[in-house]
């Protein structure tokens, strides 16, 4: 839901905004250039569903949304390093922050997805550090603090442990000390949730375009 530049013209919304009723919606330009405001992506779709069926969600909780930063946030080109000549930077940043606040107030939480959608298992440390600083400078002020990270490409920096019942991991560690830091026990045979873009870049259909200066792919 970062609405990257490469998504333009491919049938995706162009941004997320707050409509006249104070609800988070998508702005969707169709193939003929006509723009509509409505529920055209997962956030407003789930918001609408939970409004009709509040029992679907415990205490209104919605889910984590992982954000990169190299093309800005939620369709707003808020990256000062990528768009240094933007004349709408201040307004875009303000609007993106209002959207993020509205989403958080409505049960969504945010996670880092790195600034440049980098493969953290392969990225040299200087670039890794630069990426983290960019995320802190350009994304955190908009979405707020978070203690969650969803690895781009599902490329954990540590190995992925064998799935199984608590106490049965190969390392002898219990699931409560898994590499993701999860403290939730999982029932026998269950699988860890697969994050968006968990496929390797070479086979991914949405993370497949090497890009100068940013991530090794996009998602
Ligand atoms: Zn991704």
State the main characteristics.
2 domains; alpha+beta; Glyco_hydro/deAcase_b/a-brl; disordered C terminus; 11% strand; three-stranded antiparallel beta sheet; 4 helices; single chain; binds zinc ion; Polysaccharide deacetylase family protein; two-stranded parallel ribbon; 21% helix; 219 residues
* Total E-strand runs: 5
Mean pLDDT over the full residue set: 81
- Distance between the amino and carboxyl termini: 9 Å
| Bound molecule types | zinc ion
Q: Biggest sheet: strands, sense, closure?
A: 3 strands, antiparallel
Q: How many DSSP H or I helices? A: 4
Written as H for each helix and E for each strand, in order along the chain, the element string is EEEHEHEHH
The whole-angstrom Rg is: 18 Å
Q: Strand order, biggest sheet? A: 1-2-3
Determine the structural class based on helices, strands and strand pairing: alpha+beta
Q: What's the shape?
A: globular
Protein name: Polysaccharide deacetylase family protein
Organism: Paeniglutamicibacter kerguelensis
């Amino acid at each position: 839901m970062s609405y990257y530049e490469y998504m333009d013209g491919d049938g995706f919304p162009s941004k997320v905004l707050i409509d006249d009723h104070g609800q988070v919606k998508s702005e969707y330009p169709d193939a003929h250039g006509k723009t509509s405001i409505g529920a055209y992506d997962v956030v407003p779709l789930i918001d609408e569903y939970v409004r009709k069926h509040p029992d679907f969600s415990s205490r209104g909780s919605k889910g984590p949304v992982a954000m990169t930063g190299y093309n800005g946030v939620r369709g707003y080109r808020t990256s000062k390093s990528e768009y240094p000549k933007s004349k709408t930077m201040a307004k875009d940043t303000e609007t993106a922050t209002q959207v993020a606040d509205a989403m958080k107030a409505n049960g969504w939480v945010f996670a880092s997805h790195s600034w440049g959608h980098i493969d953290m298992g392969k990225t040299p440390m200087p670039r890794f550090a630069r990426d983290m600083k960019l995320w802190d400078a350009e994304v955190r002020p908009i979405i707020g603090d978070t203690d969650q990270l969803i690895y781009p490409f599902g490329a954990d920096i540590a190995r992925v442990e064998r799935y199984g019942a608590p106490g049965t991991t190969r390392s002898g560690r219990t699931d409560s000390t898994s590499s993701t830091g999860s403290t939730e026990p999982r029932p026998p045979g269950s699988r860890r949730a697969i994050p968006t873009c968990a496929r390797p870049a070479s086979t991914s259909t949405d993370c497949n375009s090497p890009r100068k200066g940013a991530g090794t792919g996009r998602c």
